[in-house]
Specification:
heterodimer; A: 370 residues; Ammonium transporter fold; two-stranded antiparallel ribbon; 55% helix; globular; B: 427 residues; Rossmann fold; 13 helices
């Protein structure tokens, strides 16, 4: 026995640990987002875009490109910078988020979108660029500065598409003054009629023209089923809101206590409440149209479950997380309503990410007995 | 309740295994210092003959506790050995046994009938001279703990039978097998504290102990036996007071200022042995358990028995890691020559495959440590501040309120040494 004494493992207490590790947490997250990606690809495989590419195949290839580039860069940097921490699963999760927050699918009502390429093959180039910039700049370089300050996928998408911001994010077609005379959110909305000169079509018609399967314009689904079940344009990860919700909740349950669900919950409650308030303020024809759009559009629902909860770029404290979620909702609504920037949750997230050092100071819990 | 992490108990077989008497060591290695408080000096020299229960080291300071020889024999050497109480090599008295059972009768016991007429000073003196310290791990001299200022009336005595540490079952077996002795010990403590209300607390998982406690303590006046679900963290005295009495004691205040004394089972057993049998603290029950231990044991071992003796006698040929005093808060031995101390509630063996040093990675800010801290601190922020050398900030974040329970490190998915880092600056 004595000769083996010097081989004893000596380390400070505690000497046992919970089963959850960083890798396992990343694996759970990866498979949850992968499930969403598969549902999106399967749904969209029914569609062929004007360039002749199958949209489902575009998603699958795009996912491989994003994940491949992220992992490749992670491994490459790991080889040359020995102090860099190899984190393949984290890179894989990042790659999947890149494809899921990318906007694909040409809406039926669109007459030729400019700016962001919403179909293959050009989309592949942008996806690759976003993955490369995100992994290099916003994950690896940011980590050397201590920690990541902004969500890497959101920041990379924003940066890559910034030169085309006026034509991509704020698409002229989305404005009531634009070609399609889309109703503005800063005005009365209705599922069926044009209210108060807001746009050239009703908001419901716009949503159908935007989200319905372009091949099936003859029998348009109703707005709730579009927003909740299947959309054929927008964020890849938002193709099916219900899939996002199921995968998201499954992840919360699986990685219980390790995921900042308070952000998701406070964001969703706030955005729903704000939608209702705006509906009343602008005199909408009903209370559901705006609500369904704001809550279940791809950028809102996917971001709420899989981007806003990114541990590195969100507050530590429970109260901080709730403020973060509420702030994210307020900014999202304001950006979408007054900047006509549909998908504004992405910009809102980046702004909220920057407030995290401040929100980390908010701590209302007193130590035990104090 | 928030901020309490559930940890698997891993006590299934051990809790059903009766206490077994471990033979006396051939050479006993008695650490001169096993208590928190003032340091002891050896009272014997090499060559001296000593008998069982003879005081061999003591201090003249008030906050101290002497140590005694567990066997009769001769002092062969005095040199440093690994002391798990302090994670350091400290002085120890080596006694080679002579196989005789010569007993030193230094402590004069009383009978149970004499208890009510025995002055408190006499009882405190017995407890002090018996070298009794908190055997749950803290090692604070019990004679001091039970000498409560007269102007601070004690309303409640809590018997802490939670034994929260995974694997450990020594207290549980004492509650099952030595229930009547515990009742005697509690009577001593109640007399010392002016007959406060008694609450005996144990966990609902200790199914064999609960009826024994109810039967034995049911006859005592103003007494309650509480068996409820308690997490590991609630075995801590402050957390237990919150769980049972509902209040949160200010960490700056001494326990008696809240009118409550919490006493652990093993310590109560030692008090009964000292007061009624005249036996100083020379043996204790310790659990031998681990991830690869087929037959865990609860052993009544002489304090000063080298851990290697216990492993050899139980056929444990190789060990990757040996932890004494609990896997959450205890000490990983640097040497198996280290002897059993008054605070060694358990010896937990991890096999070579299990005992790997977890590689830690950067904090991912999941905030799990924050929701896991029963003291409601922010471990990740403390960790960051301390690593940056910003002790002022660490102080503002209440580093000193850390109870060292280990929950933050336990849950950390990045494997960061949060607890030990935070403890490193605690004065």
């Amino acid at each position: 026995m004595s000769e083996s004494s010097n081989e004893l493992v000596v380390k400070p207490a505690p000497h046992i640990s919970a089963p959850m590790t960083k890798t396992r947490l990343m694996q759970y997250t990866f498979f949850a987002i992968l499930a969403v990606t598969i549902v999106s690809a399967a749904t969209w495989s029914q569609v062929t875009t004007p360039s002749g590419w199958n949209l489902g195949l575009t998603v699958a290839i795009g996912a491989l490109i994003a994940v491949g580039i992220a992992v490749g860069i992670d491994v490459l940097i790991g080889k040359f910078a020995s102090d860099s921490e190899l984190n393949v699963w984290s890179a894989m999760v990042f790659g999947l988020i890149v494809i899921n927050c990318y906007t694909l699918g040409i809406p039926a009502m669109n007459s030729g979108q400019t700016g962001i390429p919403a179909e293959a093959p050009l989309a592949f180039f942008y996806i690759a660029l976003i993955a490369a910039v995100g992994e290099t700049v916003f994950k690896k370089v940011a980590s050397t500065a201590g920690r990541k300050f902004v969500n890497p996928a959101a920041a990379a998408k924003f940066l890559v598409l910034l030169p085309a911001i006026s034509t991509t994010f704020i698409i002229s077609d989305h404005l009531k003054t634009g070609m399609l005379q889309v109703p503005a959110l800063a005005g009365p909305l209705s599922p069926t009629e044009i209210l108060g000169g807001n746009g050239g079509a009703s908001f419901g018609t716009y949503l159908q023209g935007c989200y319905a399967n372009p091949a099936m314009m003859a029998s348009l689904p109703d707005i709730p089923s579009l927003m909740l079940l299947t959309k054929y344009h927008g964020w890849v990860g938002g193709a099916s809101s219900i899939a996002v919700i199921i995968a998201g909740i499954a992840l919360f349950v699986l990685a219980r206590k390790y995921i900042k669900w308070k952000i998701t919950v406070s964001y969703l409650i706030s955005i729903a409440a704000l939608s209702l308030i705006f509906s009343v303020i602008y005199g909408d024809a009903d209370l559901t149209t705006r609500l369904l759009f704001e809550v279940f559009m791809g950028s809102s629902i996917f971001l709420a479950f899989f981007m806003a909860t990114d541990p590195a770029t969100t507050p530590l404290g429970g109260i901080g997380q709730i403020i973060f979620g509420v702030g994210l909702a307020v900014l999202t609504i304001l950006i979408q309503t007054y900047m006509n920037f549909f998908g504004g949750a992405l910009l809102a997230l980046l702004i909220m990410n920057l407030t995290v050092p401040l929100l980390d100071r908010v701590n209302i819990r007193k130590p035990f007995g104090r | 309740m928030a901020n309490l992490v559930e940890i698997k108990e891993k006590k299934d077989i051990a809790r059903k295994t009766p206490i077994e008497v471990f033979p006396d060591p051939k050479v006993a290695v008695i650490l001169v210092n096993q208590q928190s408080g003032a340091s002891n000096k050896a009272l014997v020299s090499v060559g001296d003959a000593v008998s069982i229960g003879q005081k061999i080291a003591d201090s003249t300071e008030r906050v101290s506790a002497p140590v005694h020889s567990p066997i009769s024999g001769k002092v062969t050497k005095i040199e440093k050995v690994y002391n798990s109480c302090f994670s350091d090599y400290t002085e120890a008295i080596f006694i080679e046994g002579d196989g005789k059972k010569t007993k030193a009768k230094e402590i004069i016991p009383i009978t149970e009938a004499q208890l009510k007429d025995t002055p408190n000073e006499t009882l405190i003196k017995i407890i002090r001279e018996a070298g009794i310290v908190g055997m749950g791990g803290a090692g604070f001299p019990t004679s001091i703990k039970l000498s409560v200022p007269k102007d601070k009336p004690i309303k409640t005595l809590i018997v802490n039978g939670a034994e929260g540490e995974p694997y450990d079952t020594a207290d549980e077996r004492l509650m099952i097998e030595k229930t009547e002795n515990l009742v005697r010990g509690v009577r001593v403590i109640r007399k010392l504290l002016g007959n406060p209300k008694l609450i005996v607390v144990t966990k609902e998982s200790k199914v064999e102990a609960i009826p024994k406690l109810q039967a034995a303590f049911g006859k005592e006046p103003d007494t309650q036996v509480v068996a409820k679900h308690l997490t590991y963290q609630q075995g801590d005295a402050a957390m237990l007071q919150k769980a049972i009495l509902g209040y949160e004691a200010n960490p700056d205040k001494r326990s008696y200022e809240m009118g409550t004394i919490v006493q652990n089972v093993a310590t109560i057993n030692a008090i009964a042995n000292a007061v009624f049998e005249g036996e100083p603290l020379i043996s204790r029950v310790t659990t031998l358990n681990g991830d690869d231990i087929k037959q865990p044991k609860n052993l009544l071992v002489k304090i000063g028995t080298p851990v290697s003796d216990i492993l050899n006698a139980n056929g444990i040929k190789s060990a990757g890691q040996v932890v004494v005093g609990g896997v959450m808060m205890g000490n990983a031995l640097q040497s198996l020559d280290a002897p059993l101390t008054k605070r060694t509630s358990s010896i937990i063996i991890f096999s070579k495959s299990k005992a790997k040093v977890k590689k830690s990675t950067a904090c991912i800010r999941c905030a799990r440590c924050i929701s896991a801290c029963p003291a409601r601190l922010q471990p990740s922020l403390l960790y960051e501040a301390i690593n940056k050398g910003n002790f002022e900030k660490a102080e503002k974040l209440w580093a000193k309120d850390c109870i060292a329970c280990g929950s933050c490190s336990y849950v950390c998915p990045a494997g960061l040494p949060l607890t030990s880092t935070i403890r490193s600056i605690k004065g």
